[in-house]
Specification:
With about 240 residues, this protein is α/β, with parallel strands linked by helices. It has one domain (about 5-235): Carbamate kinase, CATH 3.40.1160. The chain has eight helices and eleven strands. It has helices at about 25-40, 55-65, 70-95, 115-125, 140-150, 185-190, 200-205, 220-225; strands at about 5-10, 45-50, 100, 110, 125-130, 155-160, 165, 180, 180-185, 210-215, 235. The chain has a nine-stranded mixed sheet, with helices on both faces. Helix 1 crosses helix 3. The two termini are about 25 Å apart. The relative contact order is 0.17.
Length: about 240
């Protein structure tokens, strides 16, 4: 079996790591996600991962109310470093070689982001986990995914969520909502669909970098996307 995509950028939300917990990292959930990733490493796919921090920041959110936005964003970046280390540890237990690179300098814990080094790791078959977003406040980890995906020459950004694609409306609130199989960047932006934030969508559109939104909790969904099968929603130019 030959995968459609040889190099991908996988965007994992921090909330995906919570499982059914109110916040934090659910070990069973992170192991299940790593098992999905393991399926595509066996196909020889080169994988970069950008991870969010909402699962950890949610636990401190009440205390962050009224906090300066930049300070809160830096706290969120540090939360993504914690998630990246947890993901790397779960990968190590699964026999998967990975490296964490951080946009913030924390060299005692993880190595700094260096584009050339990241690409070399990918070529060596290692998974590269990009932590700390873009390293700048006021930018989301969605934007970090679009940026890192463009920098490493990924062929697609795969946004792993709890929902199996992009819908016309929130399916939890509107039972008549239908899922798009494909939608253009311009249509997604104009309709304010919650694919990614506008900055990330615009960057991916300008770089002609497609996005596939799918559920990481559907067994085999990640592999099906990589093999080019119809799964989730494809956002394209």
């Amino acid at each position: 079996m030959t995968p459609t995509y040889r190099r991908i950028l996988l965007k994992l939300s921090g909330e995906a790591l919570m499982g059914e917990d109110p916040f934090g990292i659910n070990r069973n959930t992170i192991e299940a996600i790593v098992a999905e990733i393991a399926m595509i490493t066996k196909l020889g796919v080169e994988i970069g991962v950008v991870i969010g921090g909402g699962n950890i920041f949610r636990g401190v959110a009440p205390g962050a109310a009224g906090m300066d936005r930049a300070t809160a964003d830096y706290m969120g970046m540090l939360a993504t470093v914690m998630n990246a280390l947890a993901l790397q540890d779960a990968m190590r237990h699964a026999g998967i070689s990975s490296r964490v690179q951080s946009a913030l300098n924390i060299e005692q814990v993880v190595e700094p982001y260096i584009r050339g080094k990241a690409i070399r790791y990918l070529e060596e078959g290692k998974i590269v986990i990009f932590a700390a977003g873009t390293g700048n406040p006021f930018f989301t980890t969605d934007t970090a995914a679009a940026l890192r995906g463009s920098e490493i020459g990924a062929e697609i950004v795969l946004k792993a969520t709890k929902v199996d694609g992009v819908y016309t409306a929130d399916p939890k609130l509107d039972p008549s909502a239908t899922r798009y199989e494909r939608i253009s960047f311009d249509a997604a932006i104009q309709q304010h669909l919650k694919v990614m934030d506008a900055t990330a969508l615009t960057l991916c559109r300008d770089q002609k970098l497609p996005i596939n939104v799918f559920s990481i909790f559907k067994t085999g969904a990640l592999k099906r996307v990589v093999m080019g099968e119809a799964e989730g929603t494809l956002v394209h130019v």
